[in-house]
Write a structure and sequence with these properties.
Blueprint (H helix, E strand, L loop, with lengths): L3 H12 L2 E5 L3 H6 L6 H15 L5 E4 L1 H5 L2 H18 L2 E8 L3 H12 L8 E4 L9 H9 L3 E7 L6 H4 L9 H13 L8 E5 L6 H4 L4 H4 L3 E4 L8 H8 L6 E5 L1 H4 L5 H18 L3
Parallel strand pairs: 1-2, 1-8, 2-3, 3-4, 4-5, 5-6, 6-7, 7-8
Helix pairs in contact: 3-5, 3-14, 6-7
Length: 280
């Protein structure tokens, strides 16, 4: 069993540091001529997988856009994940689950265990305490999967929690980053526990004392493309940790669909731009 971090490093080396989102929201479905129903989101997701397999490091289906269609939408997500697995395309299931005890164990079974909803990695929220993630971290490690932990997001509301300072004098985001670093200690080329760090958070990384290079895990960076992160933003936020960055772009790529050629061309352009911005 090859660990997630090693698999991801190989895909990034081959295709560039881009994770293409699969976000079938109503506006994109309409633009693609698809109905806003379970069949539409399934067609959307499977089209993206077919077009981008072998062209990007990974894809990130946003679970919410499938779940809003109930059980048929969840079944559509399962089929998208299965298609990606069959095509050898890594998937990060963007579910942002977070809970405690046996409930978190249930989420672990669903998204990193032997379940049709399990991709190669999942996003989780640590804001019930990093220790609450233990069921996901342990089961992911046992199955060679990865975990991306929300750390420093660019939405304005996030600062009230992530920038808050705990009794030990550390910002919450810094404590999350250091806990992830402990999980990845000694891993090469990097570990399986990554962070979600917005590409547009500006000086917050430095101001809060985060050492992203020391995390030694992949840094999933939303905000590239339509959300406006520039080369200067990427340099400021990630600095010496640039080799760990996995830029996430959804609208920039998906707006070029529904043709396979359009999606591939947009993905290649975005990956090239990210690589240049990171000076890789």
């Amino acid at each position: 069993m090859t660990r997630f971090g090693a698999r991801l490093a190989g895909e990034v080396a081959a295709h560039g540091p881009l994770c293409a989102g699969i976000d079938p929201h109503a506006g994109l479905l309409a633009a693609w001529g698809l109905a806003d129903d379970a069949a539409g989101v399934e067609r959307f997701g499977r089209t993206v997988v077919e077009a981008l397999a072998g062209h990007v490091a990974c894809v990130k289906p946003q679970a919410a856009f499938f779940e809003r269609h109930g059980s048929r939408g969840v079944a559509a997500l399962e089929r998208v994940i299965a298609d990606a697995r069959d095509a050898g395309l890594l998937t990060v299931v963007d579910a942002k689950r977070g809970d405690i005890g046996s409930t978190m164990g249930g989420y672990a079974d669903a998204f990193v265990g032997d379940s049709p909803l399990a991709g190669d990695a999942v996003t989780v929220s640590p804001y019930l305490g990093f220790g609450s993630l233990r069921p996901v971290l342990d089961l992911a490690a046992a199955h060679g999967r990865g975990v991306f932990v929300l750390a420093l997001t660019s939405n304005p509301e996030g600062a009230s929690v992530q920038h808050a300072v705990g009794p030990d004098g550390r910002a919450v985001a810094r404590a999350v980053a250091e806990a992830a670093a402990a999980e990845n200690a000694g891993a090469t080329p990097f570990g399986d526990v990554g962070l979600v760090v917005g590409a547009t958070v500006g000086a917050a990384v430095t101001d809060l004392g985060l050492d992203l290079e020391a995390v030694n895990g992949p840094l999933l960076a939303p905000g590239v493309g339509a959300q406006g992160a520039t080369a200067a933003d990427l340099q400021q936020v990630f600095g010496r940790a640039r080799r760990l960055v996995l830029a996430s772009s959804s609208r920039e790529v998906l707006a070029a669909g529904p043709t396979a050629t359009g999606l591939r061309d947009a993905a290649h352009r975005t990956a090239d731009a990210v690589r240049a911005a990171l000076a890789l």
